[in-house]
Each structure stands twice: as structure tokens, then as C-alpha cells.
Amino acid sequence: MARAGDVGVIGIRAHAAGSLTDRLDRDSAPDSDVARDHQRAMSLAPLLLDRYSTLSQAALRFCLDNPDISTVAPGFKSVAEVEESAACSDLPSIDAATTDKLSALFRTFYHNRFAQ
Known about the structure:
The chain has helices at residues 33-42, 45-48, 55-65, 79-87, 96-114; strands at residues 10-12, 71-73. By secondary structure, the chain is mainly alpha-helical. It has one domain (10-114). A two-stranded parallel ribbon has the order 1-2. It is globular and about 40 Å long. The two termini are 20 Å apart.
């Protein structure tokens, strides 16, 4: 809808509050949404880490590959994270088969939360 109206979309929270990174670097209760989401995200590693160095890179590449997202605004805590994120634009796109698998996992993980 935004693209049809020539309106840009900014992808924010690409790392889902740290859930889509290799390790959580914040205190969170084991039963918190962030901890649960991070545990789920770790199951994505076998699909992505043969092509990307980190889940963080894969998360940003996923957003960059989406034609409905004009730009991505990730969060940073260090210069190394800025450099890692900047390098994502030069990484290969996530292939269609992997994107389909990620979509299926998303539906499995969040079926009850987003069921209509």
C-alpha cells in the first residue's frame, strides 16, 4: 500500500529488541517475550549462518531484501555493530527457498499471537 502511494517505509526494530542477534546482551527473565523470541531465533541459525556471519546480519539482510521497506534503521551499541550493519548491504540476498522456510517458521512460532 505504501509503495503504491510512493511512500517510503522505514524498517525499525530489525533485531527485535536483541532477539535476532547471536546473544542477548541485556538482563531479561527467562520467561520474557525477548528471551522466548531469542530462543526461537536460535533455531533459525542452521538456515542462515552458512551465508551470514551472524543472525544480526541475516535480520538486516531480510529487511533490506523486502521491496516494501525503503530503508532500515537498526540500533547500535558499538562501532563494531555499526560496521557489521553497514556491511550487510554488500551481502547476498536471502534466497527464495530460505525466505519461504523463514515465513513458515514465523507462522509456527506466532500462530496464536497473530491468528485472526
